Amino acid sequence: MAAEYFRHRAARSRLSHVVVESAGVLGIEGSPASEGAILVLKEDGLDLSRHRSKGIARADIRTSDVVIAMSFDHLDALAEMFPDGSQRRFLIRAFEAGPTPLSGAPELEDPLGTDLETYRIRYECIKTCVDHLVLYLRHETA
Fold it and tell me: Which one of 8, 114, 115, 118 has the fewest beta carbons within 10 angstroms of its own beta carbon?
């Protein structure tokens, strides 16, 4: 959900130089987005039906300036897998209060296996965070 909304916001904000990729630390390949995620994004006019999971690779890290994770476990796994990564790594909720990333941000719980309303709540949080992330990137790349 986050990557698809981020692509949408980056394009709308004329951040054509920003490339958004979604990848996971578990290395799961080819799985579609959950039905809940597809439905919630469809309600917002976005299409997640063609999304397929992929694992994160060294090339992904090497070409990234910023990496956004949902949980501390994700950040820890990235640090273990790619200790030499020079990009900035943040939890998505570090941008919840504004475009300056805050330390001590909480994790964003995965809605997988929950009801549609939980997906909607998580998506609203994602939208707020991504809107602020876009402002951060516009300032950082100006």
Answer: 115
